[in-house]
């Protein structure tokens, strides 16, 4: 698993001309649109049999990518629910990575895809896990100067994407040396499986046309266990782990209160399991509820650069 796993490439220049990429086919992907006018943020849209529509991907390049000739580590940055691949550009990722020797890949993950291959879908294929792991990563490594190895990759995300990061880092241990979760749930079974049921319900409504990630009325228990961070503790050993949760959600906002309340409780359970296993981590509990904290995203990016193989 420490061998090349690949990647994908994408970037966003909103309003720019859409072109057909020179190398349209790779790893089961067809590039149907792209824009590389911006020197740093490149945008691609792909056709893939794993997804029933054409997902977009942004690839943010280092300032000196076009002149240095160097290879760079890669951060895969995963958006939250009801967001898309442009979300981190809206949040200022360009400024956060200015001067950092790091490629940042920001893919679509669906409005409620939960970075999973669902048990059922009534709207065509929505195999986000297959798209990201088996297609996107190899495509990135084939098309950009990356380190296609364990110490060359990190994965991070917010909310649904924070769960996706924890899941991918454990399930595909040899792919990522660093994992970060910004307000992402880390426990699917606590309180009668409340988070797992929420994943099923949200995916049914916003992603799968009544299908679900884990199955109803009975879960596919093997899938839940394979995806559940607190059941995969040993898979985080020897990784950099960065966790963020809000400890004072808005009690006048029931969605914020329940969402970040479950995130906080689940991350505390996860941290206790890491402590019991003697696995180190960096954790932050901060005032407020369910949102990205830019100063901690910046700290995370700097920590990723420090942990991964240096550009050379």
Structure in a nutshell:
The chain is α/β, with parallel strands linked by helices and 312 residues long.
Could you please describe the fold and organization of this structure?
The chain has 312 residues and is an alpha/beta fold. It has a single domain, classed as Rossmann fold, CATH 3.40.50. Helix content is 33%, strand content 17%. The chain has nine helices and ten strands. It has helices spanning 65-68, 87-90, 93-96, 128-143, 160-171, 190-206, 221-227, 254-277, 294-307, and strands spanning 25-26, 29-35, 41-47, 56-60, 74-78, 103-107, 153-158, 178-182, 240-246, 282-286. A ten-stranded mixed β-sheet has the order 1-2-3-4-6-5-7-8-9-10, with helices on both faces. The longest helix has 24 residues, at 254-277.
Helix content: 25-40%
Shape: globular
By CATH's scheme, which homologous superfamily applies?
Alpha/Beta hydrolase fold, catalytic domain
For this structure, the quaternary state is single chain
Number of strands: 10
CATH class: Alpha Beta
Q: Sketch the major β-sheet.
A: 10 strands, mixed
Q: Note the total helix count.
A: 9
Largest sheet strand order: 1-2-3-4-6-5-7-8-9-10
Under the CATH scheme, which architecture would be assigned?
3-Layer(aba) Sandwich
Low-pLDDT windows of residues? 1-25
Mean pLDDT across every amino acid position: 91
> End-to-end distance, in Å?
23 Å
Under CATH, the topology can be stated as: Rossmann fold
Structural class: alpha/beta
Strand content: 15-25%
Element order, helices and strands? EEEEHEHHEHEHEHHEHEH
- Our Rg estimate from Cα atoms comes to 18 Å
